[in-house]
Amino acid sequence: MAGLYIHIPYCHSKCAYCDFYSRPDDGNAGLVADTIVKEFRLRKHEFAEPITTIYIGGGTPSILPDRLLGDIVKGIGIDSFDIKEFTIEVNPEDIYPEKLKFWKALGIDRISMGVQSLCDAELKAVGRRHSAQTALDALDMIREAGFTKISCDLIYGLPGQSVYSWQESLTRLLDTGITHLSAYSLTYEQGTLLYARMLNGKVIPADDDTVLELYSILCDETAARGFRHYEISNFALPAYEAIHNSSYWNDTPYLGLGPSAHSFDGHTRRINPASVRTYIENMPAFEIEAESEIDRLNDRIITALRTDRGLELNSIPHKYRSSIERYARIWVNRSMLEYRGDVLIIPERHWMMADAIMRDLILTDSDQTDSE
Ligand code: SF4
How far away, in angstroms, is 25 Cα from ligand 1 center? Predict the structure, then answer.
C-alpha cells in the first residue's frame, strides 16, 4: 500500500510560529491544481503499490474553491483506488455546511482541523485568524455533516498559556467528541515571526517545567477519555489512528504532489521545489535526497522511538545492533528507555526527552566500520 500527499500552498495569512511552505493567494491556484494533476499522471508509475490513503495538506486546502479541489480529485481519478482514508486539512473559518457536503461527495472521510487553542488571547498571540467559538461552531457543523473521523490540532507552551487555560482548551475540545488529537509543543523555528519576537524579547518561551506539566495534563486527560497515545504528538480513540500519517513512521511509500511536497518510494526521497512559480514552470523538478543505509536506519530509529510500538531490534541489521544497544544502555540504566522483549521503547512519561535519547542512538559511519 502507498499514500498520496497533495500540498496546497495557500493560506489566508501566516501564523507566527509556522515554517511550512505557504503563501497568500497569488492568482495561480488554478495553475497549481492543473500542475498537481499533471504531476500525478507523470509520476504515479514511481509506485508499484496501490494508493490506499490520500492526505490533502498545506498550507490551508480548505481555502481552495470547490471547483479546483474537485478538478484535482477527479483529475487523479480516485474512483479507481481502494481508499481506506481520505483526509483534508482545514481551518475553522472556512467551514460551512455546503462545503462539507461537497467534500463528502468527493470521498473525503476525515477532517483534520487546526484549532491550536480555545483561548482567544492565545490564538491572537500567534496570529490565528479564528476565535475559539468559530472552531467550536465548525466542529458542530462537521459532526452534523456526518463526519466521524475528526482530528484537531492543539499547541501547548503558547505565549501567555497557563496550566488552567491549557486544561480548559483540552477539556472543551475533547468534550466535542473528536476522535483524534494531535498536540504539539510550541517550537520557535528560525525564520518565523515568533522566533524574531523571541530574539527581541517580546515573547518568552515557556520554561521546561511548565511544558512538562502541560504534557502531563495532556497525557492524563486523553488517557482518562480512552485515547491511545500512539505517537509522541498523536492520540486516538480505538480504531481512529491516522492511517496516512502512520505510514510516515513505518516506511510505507508515499507520493507527494505540489510545491514543497516530499515523496518516498521505499528507498529514495524526492523533494519538490518550495516555490509556486518553479513548481508550475519546471514540474517535475524534484531534488533527490541520496540516503545511505545508515541514513535509512537512523530515520527508522527516530520514527520508531516516537511511537508506542518502539524500535524492533530484529529489524536492525545485525552489524549495527550492538552499537545501538551500547548507546541505549545509559538511557536504559536511567529507566528512560525500556526493553520489552526485543523492542526498545521510550515510556510515555519520558517522551518529552525523546530528542535527547534519539540523538544518542543515531548511527554514524564509524558504527558500520566498528561492527563489521
Ligand atoms: S494556517 Fe497552517 S500552514 Fe497556514 S500559516 Fe497557519 S499554521 Fe502555517
Answer: 13
Give the residue numbers spanning the domain of 87.
2-249
260 CB near ligand 1 (under 6 Å)? no
Q: Of ligand 1's atoms, which has the minimum distance to the CA of residue 18? A: 8
Across the beta sheet with 234-236, the strand order is: 228-231, 234-236, 180-185, 149-156, 110-116, 85-90, 51-58, 2-8, 254-257, 262-264, 269-271, 287-289
For residue 286, give the DSSP letter: P
Tell me how many domains the chain contains: 2
Taking the C-alpha atoms of residue 149 and residue 158, their distance in angstroms, rounded to an integer, is 26
Tell me what pLDDT residue 368 has: 61
Distance 79 CA to ligand 1 centre (A): 30
Which residue, chain included where needed, has cell 475559539? 132
Kindly state whether residues 221 and 141 are assigned to the same domain. Answer: yes
20 lines ligand 1 (CB under 6 A): yes
Distance of CA 132 to the CA centre of its chain: 22
100 lines ligand 1 (CB under 6 A): no
Q: Are residues 224 and 333 in the same domain?
A: no
8 lines ligand 1 (CB under 6 A): no
Residue 227 CA, ligand 1 centroid: distance in Å: 26
pTM more than 0.70: yes
Each residue's pLDDT tens digit, 298-323 = 988 999 999 999 999 998 888 888 88
Q: Who wins on pLDDT, 1 or 151?
A: 151
**242 found inside a domain:** yes
